[in-house]
Fold each of these.
Amino acid sequence: MSEPVTPKIVRCPTCGGDSVFAPSNPWRPFCCERCRQIDLGAWASESFRVEASPPVEDDQLPH
């Protein structure tokens, strides 16, 4: 017989608490819907950003 698989426990990115990283947790990697919504709100308000270079204007491109 195979032993039951123990779900992996990860740190919730929002609150730092334990979160079950398995299909049984619909909010993974977050521990709950509240933490998921807090993270989504931070992205929506641009509190989280991906750094990027400013776009090059067409007149600055080499010909």
Note: The chain has a mean pLDDT of 88.
Amino acid sequence: MPFKHLHLETENQVGYLLLGAGTRFNKLSVTTIRELKRALGQMEQDGTINTIVISGYPGESFAVGADIGQMLHFSPTDALRFAQLGQSLFDQIESCSKPVIGALNGITMGGGCDLAMACDIRIAVDTLQIAHPGARIGIITGFCGTRKLPRIVGKNAAREIFMTSEPYTASEALRMGLVDRVHPEKDFWPMVKQFAARIAAHPAETLSTAKKVLNASEDIDLKSGCALEAALNGTLWNTRSTSNPTP
């Protein structure tokens, strides 16, 4: 089944999941979220792909959040189901066995910010504008942003971001830890592709295991985490030594 709001590409063991509906601003409608889930599932099952990149490149926005025009017609039950749908996408990204890079090519607002936070690594263009503007229109995110943003930037910065509803620049986002890398617009996409290819060149099982252990660090105590790391490292070493016994 073809995608209406996405374009998929593969190069150098990297799967590119590009949002784009022929408009300037990529909105996270019900259809778009469902397509993202389907496309992500396809890429996770594709043995030729080791790393996944989500972006709105070459458009002006990464994602500007939920489709407010669509949401105006929601009943309270519809709003709940929409929040659950978005949360299921972000959980799918976080539990994906492959690294997922968010390439923030432009405006990143509301649910778009939540989408970015679900990614393992966030790379931003220097013209980035990122915000959570829900308070301005009388809503909060239903996509777990109030839970995840404090974990990434700290509680005080998260309060400021939510309560002011103001956009932040790429340099401000980098300072807060909301993004991990920033590149000038002219270099942005080549640098994203180069970075993604570097990661994708590593063994898929190692990348998957590293992601699993790193994500678990927030949910389990230090002693248990160290034991998990040792066990998984032993499993990886056994696999590696069987296929390539020479260090």
Note: The chain has ten helices and ten strands.
Amino acid sequence: MAAADQSSDHMGGRLLTALLLILTLCAFAGNSLLNRAALAENTIDWASFTVIRLVSGAIMLALLLGIQHGRSVLPRRDTLVPAIALFVYAVSFSFAYISLDAAIGALILFPAGQLSLQMIGIFRGIYPTAIQWIGLFLATAGLVIFLAPGDTAPPLIGGLIMALAGIAWGFYSWAGKGAARPALATARNFVGAGLLCALLIPLMDYGGQIEPKGVYLAIVSGTITSGLGYITWYAVLPRISVSTAAASQLSVPAIAALGGVMLLGETLTTRFFIGSAMIFAGIGLTMFKIGRA
């Protein structure tokens, strides 16, 4: 009877982890859609979007967690790396979406994040299996083909900046693997990144018109798809392997692509489908024997 109860609890835990992971991946795709929608319609500039996104997320999480934890929501020395990584990610993310479609940006961001996570894992002594190496190579090759020069290639500068955002996201995700209290860690990271937004104040477009829609999209991105989304991400990270964390994020481009076509009227090229096919094939190989990675 006890064994049956343990089996039931284990199954319930796996279902909860899967649900949290699905919600988190949808939030990640939502960030791409919200950011691109705001910039494509010229309702706000990239720097203002980033500042509002990070500061609104910081305020919401500080209020939410401060009631329970008091002043401990303030950044600490051990939150320096994830706070800087979050700031670099958000800045690069918004700037890249000046020129990239939502689906294209996500297709660049998350493979770069995966490679970053895997490289950090290797430096820490966590090595992929041989077949996972093949998957990483295939996913990387798909990303290179996607970015290669050509008539349908995405803007190179925007693509490279989004790749930088992916690298920063990998560092942020790695920091979350050791978070004992995910919600509190996320709040501290956001408060730290929010303070770093002072560096963006000179870059804000004071001469341009910031429309209410742009502000609203930035706030939703900061409080819901980023703030709450990252809490669920930090909550699920300790439950899964490094390879699962890295590979699962590669489903986000597909979600963002669907949303981009349905909500933003974006079109998908043959290059996108070829690159996606290679990247997703790489996912399958990377997730092989995922429990041991």
Note: The first helix runs from residue 2 to 40.
